[in-house]
Structure formats: structure tokens, C-alpha cells
Amino acid sequence: KNEVEQSPQNLTAQEGEFITINCSYSVGISALHWLQQHPGGGIVSLFMLSSGKKKHGRLIATINIQEKHSSLHITASHPRDSAVYICAVPGTYKYIFGTGTRLKVLA
Amino acid sequence: DTGVSQDPRHKITKRGQNVTFRCDPISEHNRLYWYRQTLGQGPEFLTYFQNEAQLEKSRLLSDRFSAERPKGSFSTLEIQRTEQGDSAMYLCASSLWTSRSGELFFGEGSRLTVL
User: Which residues, in sequence order, are CB contacts of B73 under 8 Å at separation 6+?
Assistant: First the structure.
């Protein structure tokens, strides 16, 4: 079992839909990253959060440290949101990455 | 631009040649990571530095790979005698690691194609 698991692995949505991507982890952490990677592009940090909820535009990230679970929500999804979304947690000395969720938003 | 920069962005080389990638992290960041990413996969950890010290090296990193971070600033990743299996995106990231975490900032990556 991976230390960081994401679901779903692939997701196709219609424009305007509310999207949820989940991340569960088995290690004790102090913070969690959500990252975004567009096809052929670099990796961009979306959020780093250690408790509660953070919001940036149409993106909302929540974390429950006790349950070792985080979610990334996208409201009013748009085709430009199509990307791979990756959660990452800091291990003892390096980040551990989830396998990513490949999101495709159709117009 | 104060982000993480990598050079070159693309490199095409013939099998057996040596290649070197450079990463300039965000200036005050104490940690620098190298990752490798192949198509459709997540980043695979290669190695990381705390200031100038290389503290961990993945078993993925054969002895053809070497990384340095002289003076704790920029870093280089050299691949000797390249093989077609080395074709990948090589990602550099840096963070200001305090206590148990630090926000990770990635460069745009250096894409290597070995013919």
C-alpha cells in the first residue's frame, strides 16, 4: 500500500461541474501539498495546508489531520482546469507524492 | 524572476553522451531536490541537498548519475554515458525546510531525449 493514495486516478467532467479529488496518507505529517501539472507543463504548487481549509479562487482544499485525509475541490470547473493534480506529504526528509489524478474538463 | 529556474529546458543527445542540467533554486531555500518524471507518472525522487550536503540518494540513481550543490546555491545533475531509458523530465524543486516541512517550489523541468 502506498503511503499516499489519491482517488480517483482519472476523472472526466463537464464544464461547470463541482469536482472533488481525494488524498489519503498513512504517515504522520505537519502539512500537505496540492500540486497541479498541465500536460507538458511544469508543476505548480496550489496549496500547502496543515489544518482546516484554504481557498484560492475556484479551488478549495481541506484537510483532516486526525483522519489523515485531504480533499481538493474545484467549483464551476472549466476546460483550463484540465491537468494532473498531485498531493504530496513531507516524509522524514523528502516529499512523498501521490500517483496523481488526471482531470479532463469537457466544454 | 525569483522562482526556481532550470537549464536547459530541452536536451536531445545521442546514447553514450554526457549531459548536465543546472538548477538555480529560490535564493534563501536550504533544501534542493531532484526528481525524474516519465510520461504519465508522478515525480520519482532522485536526490536532495540540505544546503551543500547531499543527504539522500535514491537507489534509482545509478553510478552514472551525479549531483552537486557547491556552496549550497545552484545544483547540477550530470548523467554520464546516457541510455535511452534516461529519457525523462528532470525536475528540480526547492524549499525552505523548517521544523518538519517547507513549501515546495518546482522549476519548469529539463526534458531529456536520448536517441
Answer: B24, B25, B27
Total count of residues recorded for chain A: 107
Contacts of B113 in chain A (CB under 8 A): none
Chain-chain contact of A42 with B100 (C-beta, under 8 angstroms):
no
> What is the distance between the alpha carbons of residues B66 and A73, in angstroms, rounded to a whole number?
40
B107/A44 Cα distance (integer angstroms): 9
**B43 contact residues in A (CB cutoff 8 A):** 43, 86, 97
Q: What is the pLDDT of residues B8-50, one digit of tens each?
A: 999 999 999 999 999 999 998 999 999 998 887 778 889 999 9
Residue A1: predicted pLDDT: 60
